[in-house]
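E1 ubiquitin-activating enzyme (Porphyra umbilicalis), 1083 aa
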Amino acid sequence: MASATVANGAAAASDQAVASTIDEDLYSRQLYVLGHEAQRRMASSSVLLVGVDGVGVEIAKNLILAGLKSVTLFDPMPAMTADLAAQFYLTPDHVAAGTPRAAASLPLLESLNPYVSVSLLEADGGASVADTVSAAASQYTAVVLVNQSLAAQTAVDAACRSADVKFMSVGAFGAFGRIFNDFGPAFTVSDVNGEQPRSVMISAVTVDGDDVVVTCLDEQRHDFEAGDHVSFTEVQGMTGLNDGKPREIKVLGPFTFSLVGCREEVAAMGEYVRGGYATQVKMPSTIVFKSLPEAAEEPEYVIADFAKMMQMGTTHAAFQAVDAFRATLGGALPTPGSAAHAAKFVEFVEAAAGSAADDLDAKVLECFARTAAGVLSPMAATLGGIAAQEVLKATSGKFMPIKQFFYIDCQEVLPSPPPTEAECAPTGSRYDGQVAVLGATVQKKLAALNYFLVGAGAIGCEMLKNWAMMGVGVDAASGGGIVITDMDQIEKSNLSRQFLFRDADIHKPKSVAAAAAVRVMNSDVNIVAHEVRVGPETEATFDDEFWDGLSGVCNALDNVQARLYVDQRCVYYVKPLLDSGTLGTKGNTQVVVPGLTESYSSSRDPPEKSIPICTLKNFPYQIEHTLQWARDWFEGSFRGTPEDCNAYLGSRGKDFFDDLKKQGPGTMLATLEAVHSSLVTERPLSVEDCIKWSRLLFEEMFSSSIKQLLHAFPADMVDANKVPFWSGTKRVPTPLTFNAADETHMAFVTSAALLRAQVYGIPVSDKDMAHFPAALAAVMVPDFVPKAGVKIATTEAEASEQNASGAGSLDQDDERIETLLKALPPAGSAGSDGASKTLVPLEFEKDDDTNHHIDVITACSNLRAANYSIEPADRHKSKMIAGKIIPAIATTTSFVTGLVCIEMLKLVRLGYTDRDGGGYDGGAWCKAAAKGSDAKARRDAAEKKLECFKNGFANLALPFFAFSEPVVAAATDMGHGRFWTLWDLLDVNEGRDITLGEFLEAIKTHYGLEVSMVSCGVSILYASFTNPRRLQERLATPLSEVARTVGKLTFLAKQRYLVMELICTDKEGEDVEVPYCRYRFRF
């Protein structure tokens, strides 16, 4: 009988995991993917993981980070040298001692998450894996088998089906991977896609014949699909629709849909009047799974790569036959690189297929056999991410599972011709498992790589782990190494995805902590950590010499601007770039190949749609509007105005006044009013003053301003056509009356007062907080009196017009400005006390739950929402929207980084990571053509290499996978068969700093072009029409000196290059459009 041995402290962790509360600090990003209900289900689920090799440890790591109740490991196999190529928690000492893989991995897996119990399942006696696991299966929510025999899979699957336990098997053989799911005969999925329910405003509900047709408000596409269900709220007239019942729909068009099967019910509800929302309702779906033997006979596939769809049958046959073939070799897998074993395997599988053998692809079978005994860390990461997500689906019921087979391969990483048996032979190296697939030559290239990793967040951590297993840059003698940079420090919310970090690392630099962690995984790793941003301001650190010495660059960034900068550097220095990103269960990868493909910058996402100003100010109708309004108010009140005050106090008056003029029309008077209020009329001197300010602020923001709006536009106002003003997206507001018993009211005034005190450096004691209610009650709130002559914009055009009309108010209000300036403390009088004491601007920080930032924004937004009868958002949702948090989960990160490393192996194989960029010199096409060779033929040959590269997109929730070849870089025609792309430049490197005249001759010699003008920055260094005497002088001067004297340029200490723009003509005198010129002047 099997028994479970629980690691120290795991029992207490288990009790914590099933608690009703969820650690939102730890799981915050993941909760935005899964939601609280799915997280709670996972926290009460137990999983048995059988097989803790490279794939198994990836799955275990991802499950533990996700926050299951418990993960039990079973793997009595001793650690072997080949495991070290992918199993990142095994060491050479484990191999030497013959420590079982599960036991060796337990301590570090346990340290990943204190809320998850991690234990070992130990078998009694000599029971088989199948018998041991089958006997224990009923104790678990799900059982996962990794790289177990087909017989064991079949037996355990049968045991799981009889016990109503979800079953999954995962297999990896070299460049090939497989996942199989059996979640039982009736598995319920609560949310098939993970997308937020869509909601749309409606303008009409009509009974048209047998149909009930719903029309959406103008310009609001519903984006529903046939078979969706919706519920209705706030419908006037047909109020019966507001019963919350889900109703099935049929899509009629982008703005209309009909309700299915409820014509009589709706017809009896009376006439539709106006308003209302239709909101998508997630309906549960029941999925029927077959047992493994049944599914194998008639397999259903989730396609990983549609270009390989016809290979699915061949790959399926290979996985089904491999155990039987091993029996012919005494239990061993085919010898890596063995052509003889590969041929025998092809014959064996074809014979087993019988009449279906003609449908098999012999090349795929041969590749499978050649690599089956090997291990690839990128494949382990890819499979581990997908498989772990499938386990989370099994335990939570969230997202659509794989039904039922999934196959993926990376045959393109193999050298051509494939490595020989001798090339793949083991040498006792920790990389033997990878050498068995790629061969020793590729492994040597990996060791000599010098790669730059930009970012040490979730993707950066996973990437470093993969690189450590792959042996990237471990040969320092050959120039190998890894450089990583990240300016951020570790926060608690990072720990659920950035698995190299632990609690003890919080507040440490990410790059430094990550580098230290991977050195523990592989002592060979040669890594340098920086703590700076990559950008124009750090070009003295990451200089020409640095970039020239790189093999390639990998982005692990979370913002577009940094990506664009790195991309521009890679194009300039002709370096390959690997880029990736995740958004919840969605992930994408891009490989940028020097000289061939588009760069990252070649395509852009459309800009984020902004919220109209008039909507934010006066007519919100979504919680996103109120949150943006609250965030804007926070920025203005607690950062913007204090910064303006400090700028005034720390400057000369004229300088401050001049700076205000530069801000644009309509801003000067408003800024001065705010500074005057903050420093003079409303400057607090005590906590009581801050409390008074916050209470009066509540009255102004949520009562008086709403009353003013209703004074201008009464609730029953109609236009000339009798159409109500308050209709469509305009929701009639209601002023709020302050209530000290209301939690949201108190949250706002309390948080606002505390932040006000912080800005002014006023300490707040426990005594002050105890006195808070009394101080609040003592505030005298003046009665509301409508203001005359207030103009309120009702459209975006009116808002823009009002902003423009404010331009003249600065001159017209000189008297008011003069009055304000006289009342202010003297400019430049910044001090530590009194009226000139500088303020403390608050930088918004979403992840510090003690700083009241999210508290005040949530309360402010929900009070605004209450004004407009908008459904409020809890703190968790408010934090995501206001903080612009990107949902994230470890499974997607693992999957994406695996794909990126597969593309990296292709770059290495084809020579693009060689120091010479695979032979591409940055001007190949135009230079080659100038010398009479066929540039187009060379380019066509190079483009053939693109067939092996893949850009990827996936949504693990659906699940959906799509791969495509990178897009070829667009070419600019130069005439006479010449052209250039974004990768090309006129590269001049004569080994010394040549004269301007020699430079012109070099362009003519190398590129067949006559130069008529040379410019650098905003300066013209040479023009054919320049005064002859001055021109002769310049032509004899070194070009760098011309740039210094004429262009007034200054050079960084290690700067090697000048970048110039040229105007050229060809030998026929025709103007030619050319790329920029890079001239090396320093050596």
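The chain is about 40% helix and 15% strand. Residues 441-512+520-620+900-926 form a domain with the Rossmann fold fold (CATH 3.40.50.720). ok done for today
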